[in-house]
Design goal:
With 192 residues, this protein is α/β, with parallel strands linked by helices. 39% of the residues lie in helices and 21% in strands. It has a single domain, classed as 3-Layer(aba) Sandwich (Pyruvate-ferredoxin Oxidoreductase, domain 3), CATH 3.40.920. It contains six helices and seven strands, in the order E-H-E-E-E-E-H-E-H-H-H-H-E. The protein has a seven-stranded mixed sheet with strand order 2-3-1-4-5-6-7, with helices on both faces. Helix 3 crosses helix 4 and helix 5 packs antiparallel against helix 6. The mean pLDDT is 94.
């Protein structure tokens, strides 16, 4: 990685956008990269639109502002498309990853995106099958790892496992479910 990668996460309160950006940041930090992981706060409540951000670089990051032109946008809830301009600031050649059951071609049409790459993964279905709750953040992290190549899946899984063990030591099914969700997101993401 020679340039800084900026990522913007769109989700709804309770879907794990903030947690996903923190997990990604910590995993990249574990690989020796410089990172920023932060959220934009407002009147957040369960179900309200939220945004989180990452910056990842091999060099020190001196920026201290919002991400306005992300190379990658991750959308945890496709119902945000329309009410929220999820493609705002996405440069030519940018990548967007959407949690949806529709095809990447259909999503490109819905986004009215002429340029850039569109990826889709049914992260909600994966989350329901693996962790028994519609919290799509870990499958989307797996998809992001595959789409960007920002870090190896094995490193992301190991770092996430360590962090989840601290929080869910008495619930091994939560840990294994989230790791399975991440692996499936990595494997099941599709491209148009």
């Amino acid at each position: 990685m020679t340039e800084m990668l900026e990522i913007r996460w769109h989700g709804r309160g309770g879907q794990g956008a903030k947690t996903a950006s923190l997990l990604l940041g910590e995993a990249c930090l574990g690989e020796g990269r410089h990172i920023q992981a932060f959220s934009e706060y407002g009147p957040e409540r369960m179900g309200a639109p939220v945004q989180s951000f990452n910056r990842v670089s091999d060099a020190r990051i001196r920026l201290r502002c919002n991400v306005t032109a992300p190379q990658v946008v991750v959308v945890l809830d496709d119902s945000l498309i329309g009410p929220v301009d999820v493609t705002e600031g996405l440069p030519a050649g940018g990548k967007i990853i959407v949690n949806t059951a529709v095809s990447a071609a259909e999503m490109r049409r819905r986004l009215k995106l002429a340029d850039g790459e569109v990826f889709t993964v049914d992260a909600s279905r994966i989350a329901k099958e693996t962790i028994k709750r519609d919290i799509p953040n870990t499958p989307m992290l797996g998809a992001l790892a595959r789409v960007t190549g920002i870090l190896k899946l094995e490193n992301l899984l190991e770092d996430t496992r360590k962090r989840l063990e601290k929080k869910f030591a008495s619930k091994p099914e939560v840990i294994s479910g989230n790791l399975q969700a991440m692996e499936r997101g990595y494997q099941e993401v599709t491209h148009e």
